Amino acid sequence: MRILKDIPELVKADVITPETADKIRNYYQSKGSASPNQLYIVFAIIGSILVGLGIILMMAHNWDELSRITKTFFAFLPLLLGQILCGYTLIKKQASTTWRESGSVFLFFAVGASIALVGQIYHIPGGTGTFLLTWMLLCLPLVYLMPSSGTSLLYLACLTYYVTHLDFGSSSNSYWYWLLLFGILPHYYQLYRKKPTSNFMIFHNWLIPLSIAIALVTVAKETEELLFIAYCSLFGFFILVGNLDFFAQQKLKNNSYKLIGTLGTMLLLFVLSFNGFWQNVSEELLSNNQIFTAPEWYAAVLITLFAGGLLFFRRRSKALITLPQLEPVFTFFIIIFIIGLFAPIAAGLVNLLILVIGILTMREGAAKSHLGVLNLGLLIITTLILCRFFDTDLSFVIRGLLFVLVGAGFFGANYWLLKKRKTNEQ
Protein backbone atom coordinates (compact mmCIF):
# COMPACT_ATOMS: atom_id res chain seq x y z
CA MET A 1 0.00 0.00 0.00
CA ARG A 2 1.44 3.36 -1.08
CA ILE A 3 0.71 5.20 2.17
CA LEU A 4 2.72 2.61 4.13
CA LYS A 5 5.66 3.02 1.74
CA ASP A 6 5.55 6.80 2.22
CA ILE A 7 5.56 6.67 6.03
CA PRO A 8 9.40 6.69 6.45
CA GLU A 9 9.66 9.70 4.13
CA LEU A 10 6.89 11.54 6.04
CA VAL A 11 8.60 10.80 9.39
CA LYS A 12 11.97 11.95 8.02
CA ALA A 13 10.41 15.21 6.81
CA ASP A 14 8.75 15.76 10.22
CA VAL A 15 5.30 15.71 8.64
CA ILE A 16 4.18 13.03 11.11
CA THR A 17 5.71 11.81 14.37
CA PRO A 18 7.04 8.23 14.85
CA GLU A 19 4.10 7.57 17.22
CA THR A 20 1.62 8.60 14.49
CA ALA A 21 3.49 6.40 11.99
CA ASP A 22 3.08 3.39 14.32
CA LYS A 23 -0.64 4.12 14.71
CA ILE A 24 -1.09 4.24 10.91
CA ARG A 25 0.76 0.94 10.48
CA ASN A 26 -1.30 -0.73 13.24
CA TYR A 27 -4.54 0.56 11.72
CA TYR A 28 -3.87 -0.88 8.28
CA GLN A 29 -2.56 -4.16 9.71
CA SER A 30 -5.74 -4.64 11.77
CA LYS A 31 -7.88 -3.63 8.79
CA GLY A 32 -6.12 -6.11 6.52
CA SER A 33 -6.42 -9.01 8.95
CA ALA A 34 -10.11 -8.32 9.59
CA SER A 35 -11.19 -8.44 5.94
CA PRO A 36 -10.90 -11.57 3.77
CA ASN A 37 -8.52 -11.61 0.83
CA GLN A 38 -10.59 -10.33 -2.10
CA LEU A 39 -8.34 -12.10 -4.57
CA TYR A 40 -9.12 -15.51 -3.03
CA ILE A 41 -12.86 -14.85 -3.38
CA VAL A 42 -12.52 -13.79 -7.03
CA PHE A 43 -10.39 -16.83 -7.89
CA ALA A 44 -12.77 -19.14 -6.01
CA ILE A 45 -15.78 -17.84 -7.98
CA ILE A 46 -13.92 -18.09 -11.30
CA GLY A 47 -12.69 -21.56 -10.38
CA SER A 48 -16.22 -22.71 -9.56
CA ILE A 49 -17.50 -21.40 -12.88
CA LEU A 50 -14.70 -23.14 -14.82
CA VAL A 51 -15.19 -26.45 -12.97
CA GLY A 52 -18.92 -26.35 -13.63
CA LEU A 53 -18.44 -25.56 -17.31
CA GLY A 54 -15.72 -28.23 -17.61
CA ILE A 55 -18.02 -30.94 -16.21
CA ILE A 56 -20.76 -29.93 -18.65
CA LEU A 57 -18.27 -30.01 -21.56
CA MET A 58 -16.96 -33.48 -20.65
CA MET A 59 -20.46 -34.90 -20.46
CA ALA A 60 -21.49 -33.22 -23.72
CA HIS A 61 -18.52 -34.81 -25.55
CA ASN A 62 -19.86 -38.39 -25.27
CA TRP A 63 -23.46 -37.52 -24.63
CA ASP A 64 -25.08 -39.25 -27.61
CA GLU A 65 -23.43 -42.61 -26.79
CA LEU A 66 -24.88 -42.79 -23.27
CA SER A 67 -28.12 -44.54 -22.29
CA ARG A 68 -31.06 -42.54 -20.96
CA ILE A 69 -30.48 -43.79 -17.40
CA THR A 70 -26.79 -42.86 -17.57
CA LYS A 71 -27.66 -39.46 -18.98
CA THR A 72 -30.11 -38.87 -16.14
CA PHE A 73 -27.46 -39.88 -13.60
CA PHE A 74 -24.94 -37.42 -15.06
CA ALA A 75 -27.62 -34.74 -15.29
CA PHE A 76 -28.13 -34.86 -11.53
CA LEU A 77 -24.46 -35.49 -10.62
CA PRO A 78 -23.37 -31.78 -10.68
CA LEU A 79 -26.46 -30.92 -8.68
CA LEU A 80 -25.57 -33.55 -6.06
CA LEU A 81 -21.94 -32.39 -5.90
CA GLY A 82 -23.02 -28.78 -5.52
CA GLN A 83 -25.41 -29.62 -2.70
CA ILE A 84 -22.72 -31.63 -0.89
CA LEU A 85 -20.30 -28.72 -1.27
CA CYS A 86 -22.85 -26.19 0.02
CA GLY A 87 -23.87 -28.52 2.87
CA TYR A 88 -20.23 -28.91 3.94
CA THR A 89 -19.79 -25.12 3.75
CA LEU A 90 -22.83 -24.46 5.93
CA ILE A 91 -21.70 -27.01 8.54
CA LYS A 92 -17.93 -26.51 8.61
CA LYS A 93 -17.02 -23.31 6.73
CA GLN A 94 -19.95 -20.98 7.22
CA ALA A 95 -17.70 -18.08 8.24
CA SER A 96 -15.56 -18.38 5.10
CA THR A 97 -16.67 -16.03 2.32
CA THR A 98 -14.51 -17.93 -0.17
CA TRP A 99 -16.22 -21.27 0.57
CA ARG A 100 -19.70 -19.75 0.55
CA GLU A 101 -19.23 -17.91 -2.73
CA SER A 102 -17.49 -20.76 -4.58
CA GLY A 103 -19.94 -23.41 -3.35
CA SER A 104 -23.06 -21.42 -4.15
CA VAL A 105 -21.79 -20.34 -7.59
CA PHE A 106 -21.03 -23.97 -8.45
CA LEU A 107 -24.50 -25.04 -7.30
CA PHE A 108 -26.05 -22.16 -9.27
CA PHE A 109 -24.59 -23.49 -12.53
CA ALA A 110 -25.31 -27.10 -11.52
CA VAL A 111 -29.02 -26.27 -11.19
CA GLY A 112 -29.03 -24.70 -14.66
CA ALA A 113 -27.15 -27.63 -16.18
CA SER A 114 -29.51 -30.19 -14.58
CA ILE A 115 -32.62 -28.39 -15.84
CA ALA A 116 -31.21 -28.18 -19.37
CA LEU A 117 -30.04 -31.81 -19.43
CA VAL A 118 -33.26 -33.27 -18.02
CA GLY A 119 -35.26 -31.20 -20.49
CA GLN A 120 -33.11 -32.48 -23.35
CA ILE A 121 -33.17 -36.13 -22.21
CA TYR A 122 -36.95 -36.34 -21.78
CA HIS A 123 -37.82 -33.83 -24.56
CA ILE A 124 -39.64 -31.46 -22.21
CA PRO A 125 -41.07 -28.57 -24.28
CA GLY A 126 -40.10 -24.97 -23.53
CA GLY A 127 -37.88 -22.20 -24.84
CA THR A 128 -35.00 -20.19 -23.41
CA GLY A 129 -37.36 -17.91 -21.48
CA THR A 130 -39.02 -20.82 -19.68
CA PHE A 131 -35.64 -22.38 -18.92
CA LEU A 132 -34.26 -19.14 -17.43
CA LEU A 133 -37.43 -18.50 -15.43
CA THR A 134 -37.33 -22.00 -13.89
CA TRP A 135 -33.62 -21.66 -13.19
CA MET A 136 -34.01 -18.33 -11.39
CA LEU A 137 -37.00 -19.53 -9.37
CA LEU A 138 -34.98 -22.48 -8.10
CA CYS A 139 -31.82 -20.43 -7.37
CA LEU A 140 -33.39 -17.47 -5.55
CA PRO A 141 -33.41 -19.30 -2.16
CA LEU A 142 -29.72 -20.14 -2.66
CA VAL A 143 -28.84 -16.41 -2.40
CA TYR A 144 -30.28 -16.29 1.12
CA LEU A 145 -29.42 -19.80 2.27
CA MET A 146 -25.66 -19.48 1.80
CA PRO A 147 -25.76 -16.27 1.66
CA SER A 148 -23.87 -15.38 -1.53
CA SER A 149 -23.51 -12.03 -3.29
CA GLY A 150 -21.74 -13.66 -6.24
CA THR A 151 -24.81 -15.83 -6.83
CA SER A 152 -26.97 -12.74 -6.46
CA LEU A 153 -25.05 -11.02 -9.28
CA LEU A 154 -25.36 -14.09 -11.52
CA TYR A 155 -29.05 -14.23 -10.68
CA LEU A 156 -29.52 -10.57 -11.70
CA ALA A 157 -27.56 -11.06 -14.93
CA CYS A 158 -29.62 -14.14 -15.92
CA LEU A 159 -32.85 -12.39 -14.89
CA THR A 160 -32.00 -9.47 -17.18
CA TYR A 161 -31.16 -11.91 -19.98
CA TYR A 162 -34.53 -13.57 -19.36
CA VAL A 163 -36.43 -10.31 -19.81
CA THR A 164 -34.80 -9.74 -23.21
CA HIS A 165 -36.37 -13.01 -24.41
CA LEU A 166 -39.91 -11.87 -23.69
CA ASP A 167 -42.25 -10.95 -26.50
CA PHE A 168 -42.51 -7.21 -25.87
CA GLY A 169 -45.99 -5.77 -26.08
CA SER A 170 -47.97 -8.98 -25.76
CA SER A 171 -46.40 -11.09 -23.06
CA SER A 172 -47.60 -11.10 -19.48
CA ASN A 173 -44.49 -13.03 -18.35
CA SER A 174 -42.72 -9.72 -17.65
CA TYR A 175 -44.54 -9.68 -14.31
CA TRP A 176 -42.39 -12.64 -13.32
CA TYR A 177 -39.34 -10.47 -13.85
CA TRP A 178 -40.59 -7.80 -11.44
CA LEU A 179 -41.55 -10.39 -8.82
CA LEU A 180 -38.14 -12.08 -9.04
CA LEU A 181 -36.40 -8.69 -8.94
CA PHE A 182 -38.26 -7.79 -5.73
CA GLY A 183 -37.11 -11.17 -4.42
CA ILE A 184 -33.45 -10.12 -4.56
CA LEU A 185 -33.93 -6.67 -2.99
CA PRO A 186 -33.75 -7.88 0.65
CA HIS A 187 -30.28 -9.28 -0.06
CA TYR A 188 -29.33 -5.93 -1.66
CA TYR A 189 -30.49 -4.14 1.47
CA GLN A 190 -28.52 -6.48 3.72
CA LEU A 191 -25.44 -5.86 1.56
CA TYR A 192 -25.98 -2.12 1.97
CA ARG A 193 -26.24 -2.50 5.76
CA LYS A 194 -23.28 -4.85 6.29
CA LYS A 195 -20.85 -4.17 3.41
CA PRO A 196 -21.71 -0.74 1.93
CA THR A 197 -18.28 -0.19 0.37
CA SER A 198 -17.59 -3.71 -0.90
CA ASN A 199 -17.06 -4.58 -4.56
CA PHE A 200 -20.18 -6.75 -4.43
CA MET A 201 -22.19 -3.67 -3.42
CA ILE A 202 -20.71 -1.62 -6.27
CA PHE A 203 -21.55 -4.34 -8.82
CA HIS A 204 -25.10 -4.56 -7.47
CA ASN A 205 -25.40 -0.77 -7.75
CA TRP A 206 -24.57 -1.04 -11.45
CA LEU A 207 -26.53 -4.16 -12.31
CA ILE A 208 -29.86 -3.35 -10.63
CA PRO A 209 -30.56 0.04 -12.31
CA LEU A 210 -29.32 -1.27 -15.67
CA SER A 211 -31.61 -4.29 -15.37
CA ILE A 212 -34.62 -2.12 -14.46
CA ALA A 213 -33.92 0.27 -17.35
CA ILE A 214 -33.79 -2.66 -19.79
CA ALA A 215 -36.88 -4.34 -18.37
CA LEU A 216 -39.11 -1.27 -18.31
CA VAL A 217 -39.67 -1.52 -22.05
CA THR A 218 -41.50 -4.83 -21.49
CA VAL A 219 -44.60 -3.00 -20.21
CA ALA A 220 -45.09 -1.43 -23.66
CA LYS A 221 -48.32 -2.46 -25.31
CA GLU A 222 -50.39 0.01 -27.38
CA THR A 223 -49.48 3.42 -25.90
CA GLU A 224 -45.72 3.07 -25.90
CA GLU A 225 -45.34 6.88 -26.19
CA LEU A 226 -46.12 7.08 -22.46
CA LEU A 227 -42.97 5.10 -21.78
CA PHE A 228 -40.97 8.26 -22.51
CA ILE A 229 -42.52 9.78 -19.37
CA ALA A 230 -41.82 6.55 -17.48
CA TYR A 231 -38.20 6.47 -18.62
CA CYS A 232 -37.61 10.18 -17.92
CA SER A 233 -39.03 9.75 -14.41
CA LEU A 234 -36.98 6.58 -13.91
CA PHE A 235 -33.74 8.32 -14.89
CA GLY A 236 -34.74 11.27 -12.70
CA PHE A 237 -35.27 8.84 -9.82
CA PHE A 238 -31.80 7.35 -10.44
CA ILE A 239 -30.24 10.85 -10.37
CA LEU A 240 -32.01 11.62 -7.09
CA VAL A 241 -30.80 8.33 -5.59
CA GLY A 242 -27.27 9.03 -6.86
CA ASN A 243 -27.30 12.42 -5.11
CA LEU A 244 -28.21 10.95 -1.72
CA ASP A 245 -25.44 11.21 0.84
CA PHE A 246 -24.49 7.52 0.66
CA PHE A 247 -23.78 7.63 -3.11
CA ALA A 248 -22.65 11.29 -3.30
CA GLN A 249 -19.72 10.50 -0.97
CA GLN A 250 -18.43 7.80 -3.33
CA LYS A 251 -16.22 8.19 -6.38
CA LEU A 252 -18.11 9.15 -9.53
CA LYS A 253 -17.25 5.84 -11.25
CA ASN A 254 -18.93 4.00 -8.36
CA ASN A 255 -22.02 6.23 -8.40
CA SER A 256 -23.85 4.16 -11.01
CA TYR A 257 -27.27 5.63 -10.27
CA LYS A 258 -26.09 9.16 -11.05
CA LEU A 259 -24.19 8.12 -14.18
CA ILE A 260 -27.00 5.98 -15.60
CA GLY A 261 -29.63 8.59 -14.71
CA THR A 262 -27.64 11.45 -16.24
CA LEU A 263 -26.76 9.60 -19.45
CA GLY A 264 -30.29 8.26 -19.81
CA THR A 265 -31.92 11.66 -19.25
CA MET A 266 -29.69 13.45 -21.74
CA LEU A 267 -30.01 10.68 -24.36
CA LEU A 268 -33.80 10.79 -24.01
CA LEU A 269 -33.91 14.58 -24.33
CA PHE A 270 -31.68 14.57 -27.42
CA VAL A 271 -33.86 11.92 -29.10
CA LEU A 272 -37.01 13.91 -28.33
CA SER A 273 -35.46 17.18 -29.52
CA PHE A 274 -36.28 16.09 -33.11
CA ASN A 275 -39.64 17.05 -34.58
CA GLY A 276 -40.28 13.54 -35.92
CA PHE A 277 -41.39 12.08 -32.60
CA TRP A 278 -43.92 14.81 -31.80
CA GLN A 279 -45.69 14.75 -35.18
CA ASN A 280 -47.81 11.66 -34.40
CA VAL A 281 -47.79 11.45 -30.62
CA SER A 282 -50.77 13.79 -30.25
CA GLU A 283 -53.00 11.87 -32.69
CA GLU A 284 -52.11 8.45 -31.30
CA LEU A 285 -52.58 9.29 -27.62
CA LEU A 286 -55.63 11.58 -27.85
CA SER A 287 -57.48 9.08 -30.06
CA ASN A 288 -56.82 6.17 -27.68
CA ASN A 289 -59.78 5.58 -25.35
CA GLN A 290 -57.90 3.06 -23.21
CA ILE A 291 -54.98 5.27 -22.30
CA PHE A 292 -55.83 5.36 -18.57
CA THR A 293 -56.00 1.58 -18.34
CA ALA A 294 -52.82 0.91 -20.31
CA PRO A 295 -49.85 -0.66 -18.44
CA GLU A 296 -47.63 2.16 -19.74
CA TRP A 297 -49.90 4.65 -17.92
CA TYR A 298 -49.60 2.77 -14.63
CA ALA A 299 -45.82 2.47 -15.06
CA ALA A 300 -45.45 6.19 -15.82
CA VAL A 301 -47.64 7.25 -12.87
CA LEU A 302 -46.01 4.86 -10.40
CA ILE A 303 -42.41 5.77 -11.29
CA THR A 304 -43.25 9.48 -11.38
CA LEU A 305 -44.76 9.23 -7.90
CA PHE A 306 -41.59 7.55 -6.60
CA ALA A 307 -39.37 10.17 -8.24
CA GLY A 308 -41.64 13.03 -7.13
CA GLY A 309 -41.66 11.75 -3.56
CA LEU A 310 -37.87 11.57 -3.46
CA LEU A 311 -37.61 15.04 -5.05
CA PHE A 312 -39.98 16.40 -2.38
CA PHE A 313 -37.80 14.77 0.29
CA ARG A 314 -34.70 16.43 -1.18
CA ARG A 315 -36.55 19.74 -1.64
CA ARG A 316 -37.36 19.92 2.09
CA SER A 317 -33.69 20.29 2.98
CA LYS A 318 -32.58 22.42 0.02
CA ALA A 319 -33.96 25.34 -1.99
CA LEU A 320 -35.07 24.38 -5.50
CA ILE A 321 -32.48 26.62 -7.14
CA THR A 322 -29.66 24.93 -5.21
CA LEU A 323 -30.63 21.41 -6.32
CA PRO A 324 -28.45 19.79 -9.03
CA GLN A 325 -29.88 20.90 -12.36
CA LEU A 326 -30.86 17.44 -13.59
CA GLU A 327 -32.89 16.43 -10.52
CA PRO A 328 -36.17 18.23 -11.42
CA VAL A 329 -35.81 17.73 -15.21
CA PHE A 330 -38.36 14.91 -15.26
CA THR A 331 -41.06 17.27 -13.93
CA PHE A 332 -40.31 19.83 -16.68
CA PHE A 333 -40.38 17.05 -19.27
CA ILE A 334 -43.83 15.89 -18.15
CA ILE A 335 -45.14 19.46 -18.56
CA ILE A 336 -43.56 19.66 -22.03
CA PHE A 337 -45.05 16.27 -22.95
CA ILE A 338 -48.56 17.44 -21.99
CA ILE A 339 -48.08 20.71 -23.93
CA GLY A 340 -46.90 18.64 -26.90
CA LEU A 341 -50.27 16.86 -27.03
CA PHE A 342 -52.06 20.14 -27.80
CA ALA A 343 -49.46 22.44 -29.41
CA PRO A 344 -46.61 21.82 -31.93
CA ILE A 345 -43.95 23.47 -29.80
CA ALA A 346 -42.77 20.51 -27.72
CA ALA A 347 -39.59 19.90 -29.75
CA GLY A 348 -38.64 23.57 -29.36
CA LEU A 349 -39.23 23.40 -25.61
CA VAL A 350 -37.07 20.27 -25.33
CA ASN A 351 -34.28 22.08 -27.21
CA LEU A 352 -34.65 25.01 -24.84
CA LEU A 353 -34.50 22.65 -21.84
CA ILE A 354 -31.28 21.06 -23.15
CA LEU A 355 -29.77 24.50 -23.73
CA VAL A 356 -30.61 25.57 -20.17
CA ILE A 357 -29.11 22.34 -18.79
CA GLY A 358 -25.92 22.99 -20.77
CA ILE A 359 -25.64 26.58 -19.53
CA LEU A 360 -26.34 25.60 -15.91
CA THR A 361 -23.77 22.80 -16.14
CA MET A 362 -21.17 25.29 -17.40
CA ARG A 363 -22.07 27.65 -14.57
CA GLU A 364 -21.66 24.83 -12.04
CA GLY A 365 -18.27 23.93 -13.53
CA ALA A 366 -17.15 27.56 -13.29
CA ALA A 367 -18.40 27.90 -9.71
CA LYS A 368 -16.62 24.72 -8.62
CA SER A 369 -13.57 25.47 -10.79
CA HIS A 370 -14.03 21.99 -12.28
CA LEU A 371 -12.82 21.57 -15.87
CA GLY A 372 -14.70 18.29 -16.36
CA VAL A 373 -18.10 19.76 -15.44
CA LEU A 374 -17.41 22.92 -17.46
CA ASN A 375 -16.54 20.90 -20.58
CA LEU A 376 -19.58 18.67 -20.01
CA GLY A 377 -21.79 21.75 -20.29
CA LEU A 378 -20.01 22.76 -23.51
CA LEU A 379 -20.35 19.21 -24.81
CA ILE A 380 -24.12 19.28 -24.19
CA ILE A 381 -24.48 22.52 -26.17
CA THR A 382 -22.22 21.19 -28.96
CA THR A 383 -24.30 17.99 -29.24
CA LEU A 384 -27.47 20.09 -29.41
CA ILE A 385 -26.01 22.11 -32.29
CA LEU A 386 -24.98 18.90 -34.04
CA CYS A 387 -28.53 17.54 -33.71
CA ARG A 388 -29.96 20.73 -35.21
CA PHE A 389 -27.37 20.54 -38.00
CA PHE A 390 -29.38 17.70 -39.57
CA ASP A 391 -32.99 18.88 -39.23
CA THR A 392 -32.92 22.64 -39.79
CA ASP A 393 -32.78 24.76 -42.91
CA LEU A 394 -29.99 27.02 -41.71
CA SER A 395 -27.39 27.91 -44.30
CA PHE A 396 -23.97 26.30 -44.14
CA VAL A 397 -22.45 29.70 -43.34
CA ILE A 398 -24.57 30.06 -40.18
CA ARG A 399 -23.92 26.41 -39.22
CA GLY A 400 -20.20 26.97 -39.71
CA LEU A 401 -20.32 30.12 -37.59
CA LEU A 402 -22.08 28.22 -34.81
CA PHE A 403 -19.34 25.59 -34.74
CA VAL A 404 -16.67 28.30 -34.74
CA LEU A 405 -18.39 29.99 -31.80
CA VAL A 406 -18.66 26.71 -29.86
CA GLY A 407 -15.03 25.84 -30.60
CA ALA A 408 -13.95 29.28 -29.46
CA GLY A 409 -16.11 28.80 -26.37
CA PHE A 410 -14.21 25.58 -25.53
CA PHE A 411 -10.84 27.34 -25.79
CA GLY A 412 -12.03 30.50 -24.03
CA ALA A 413 -13.80 28.78 -21.14
CA ASN A 414 -10.92 26.39 -20.42
CA TYR A 415 -8.35 29.20 -20.67
CA TRP A 416 -10.41 31.38 -18.32
CA LEU A 417 -10.85 28.61 -15.77
CA LEU A 418 -7.16 27.63 -15.82
CA LYS A 419 -6.18 31.29 -15.42
CA LYS A 420 -8.65 31.62 -12.54
CA ARG A 421 -7.15 28.56 -10.83
CA LYS A 422 -3.62 29.96 -11.25
CA THR A 423 -4.68 33.30 -9.76
CA ASN A 424 -6.32 31.61 -6.77
CA GLU A 425 -3.22 29.47 -6.15
CA GLN A 426 -1.10 32.62 -6.01
Automatic annotation (TrEMBL):
Per UniProt, residues of the DUF2157 domain are 9-149
Membrane-spanning intervals of the chain: 39-60, 72-91, 103-122, 175-191, 203-220, 226-247, 259-277, 297-313, 320-339, 373-390, 396-418
Annotated organism of origin: Adhaeribacter radiodurans
Under what name is this protein listed?
DUF2157 domain-containing protein
Listed InterPro entries: DUF2157 (IPR018677)
* Assigned keywords, A-Z: Membrane, Transmembrane, Transmembrane helix
Annotated coiled-coil positions are none
